[in-house]
Amino acid sequence: MTNAINEHRRRQLMDLMAERHWDSILLYGNGWRKDFFRSLVNVNYSGPYAAAHLSRSGDLIVWVTDPWDRDLIPGAREFAGALPKASAIVGLELMETWMVPGSPVSATADVEELRRVKTAEEIESLRAAADLADRGYRCFADTVQVGIREYELVAEVEGFLKSNGAEDNFMLIASGGTEVVGMKPPTDRKLQRGDSVTTELTPCVNGYYAQICRTIVLGDPSKGQLESFSIFSEAQQAAQDLIKPGIRASDAARAQNDVFRKYGYGDYTGAKYTRVRGHCLGLFPDETPHILEDVDYVIKENMVLIAHPNTYLPLSGYMVFGDTLLVTASGNERLNATEKKLFVKETA
Amino acid sequence: MKRGLIAWDKEQLPPAVFETRLARARAALAERDLPALLVYTDVWRSNQARFLANFMPYWNRSLVVIPREAAPVLLCALSPRVYPWIKSVTVFEDIRPASKLMQTLDQLCAERGWSGLGVLDLPKLPVEIHSGLSGLEIVDVPSVGITDPDEAEFTMRRRAVVLARKALEGHLQGALEKAAVEVGKFERQLRQLGAEDLVIRVRSRGSDAYSVSVALEYCGHWVKVTRAYGPADEVVMLERRFQAALTDGDGYRENLSGPQPYEPGTGPIFALHVERQGLYFGDTCTGTEPL
């Protein structure tokens, strides 16, 4: 089991237990949220459940459900539902009520905070994921064409990502013109000349997700699409120029939104047209804190996040643009290498 | 997240199917004199909401509320910008934004004058949702009798299992070290055929043999097919064991609705997996969560 255990995290959890006078901590994962479990035992279990119990004396017991998962974690026990009592549970909120042993407190927020600052090893995985995101976007841009259906395009990209080592992927897509107000899973819509085709591509490597957001136009971009992209580009750059240790998540959001306001599109920075101006990345593709003007969280060195001013604009419809950023001692490093531009695909 | 095709072909799965299923839920409410049934759903636990309303959240979580005498309501944590699309693939006409799920549920209950609710499989409710119901009188409504598979369900599972089986025929004959590439080919092929979600795994038994399992979700219906690749005589023996187990009840078999024939080519509607010398063969068509 040793290779799968994050020793840094184990030490963090031992310190947390000592500080809070907890005797033990349980990390719970299901099919949706594997991240709580994987933050200590980094194995891509197939589920449906997994749990790890760490005692203050350092003893670790792991349960998995699928027998094949026991190949990945020698010594793991079969999860039959009955778990030992623990002082605190990470992922308690998601646990099915019948499973909860005793009356534990939640350690979810504590461990989410521990996870925000990445170790060198975690950053290497995030770099690999960002590199795969770049290559995945190249596949996306090479494959997209007039006449292909959205889900066929996504199938090609998924196949590419899995062939190149992705464990998972978070991906949204949209296509069309000014009528497009958001992204969702792929439909059977056939792409047309003049479409903006947007995607958030977020492959997972060794458990860690990195993201890229780009927009490609099929054929010559319209004046509106070009004007829109110049606003998105300026907004994303404003956040990238600002992000460093000590600034607040709200500052990074405001820097982006102020660009939209400057051009008269401030109305399109709210919840009606967009969700967030970015978010953290790691073992979950949508980690907190979110980059929003009302989020008062101080950014720290070695956090990894994406700044993306993705929103609807009447100029172009929904548009996306963003890169994964590693917060360094004095600023940030862009982990994606894909050109920062509005992509254009020639059509016959 | 689900990132395959989520669509509703109404010829394949007519709206009347859902009317019948909702009527079952309402009958259970009437029996217990409850005003409404609450069904929890998230990207992973989507089966019950899918069965009753064809709703499959591609991400995040939501609550389905089925009033005893009114149309179902979706309390949705996804953005209102995707509601037109959700309406096009589900039975819902009434979708309410619910970034704070429990607050929105409280508002709905107040609006309808409900002081209590039935909850489908209450013990399986996530802690956060359960604790948010503290102001309401809640009653466990077991899913047995409400989400039991019907003929339409079996038909869809058969379609799903045929897709998975087809993909496993003739694949993965190459070297195991290329497993990632082969898994990628599966992904591409199955998603092109309309798979909504996939979990593909390879289990090696040394250098000469391995098993592959494909858990596939087609229009919300999960199936898992496992096949072995290795020395031909061993694979043949394994398949024989599977066939024998179907007849004799050896191995693990979960029959869902009384005796059902094994139908090669169309897919069985039970779960049966056998193992022999570290190789696996089987079909699981319980159609519930990712298998």
Task: Describe the fold and architecture.
The complex is a heterodimer of chains A (348) and B (291). Chain A is α+β, with helices and mostly antiparallel strands and 348 residues long. Chain A has helices spanning 7-20, 35-38, 69-72, 108-116, 120-143, 150-163, 223-242, 249-262, and strands at 24-29, 50-55, 60-64, 77-78, 88-90, 105-106, 168-176, 196-205, 208-209, 212-218, 278-280, 287-290, 304-307, 311-313, 317-319, 322-327, 332-334, 343-345. In chain A, a hairpin with a 2-residue loop joins strand 8 (196-205) and strand 9 (208-209). Chain A is globular and about 65 Å long. Chain A starts with 6 loop residues before the first helix and ends with a strand. The relative contact order of chain A is 0.12. Chain B has 291 residues and is α+β, with helices and mostly antiparallel strands. Helices cover 34% and strands 26% of the residues of chain B. Chain B has 8 helices and 12 strands. Chain B has helices at residues 15-32, 47-53, 83-89, 101-112, 127-131, 151-168, 179-192, 232-248, and strands spanning 36-42, 61-67, 73-76, 94-97, 116-120, 137-141, 197-204, 210-218, 221-229, 252-255, 270-276, 279-284. A 6-stranded mixed beta sheet of chain B has the order 4-3-2-1-5-6, with helices on both faces.
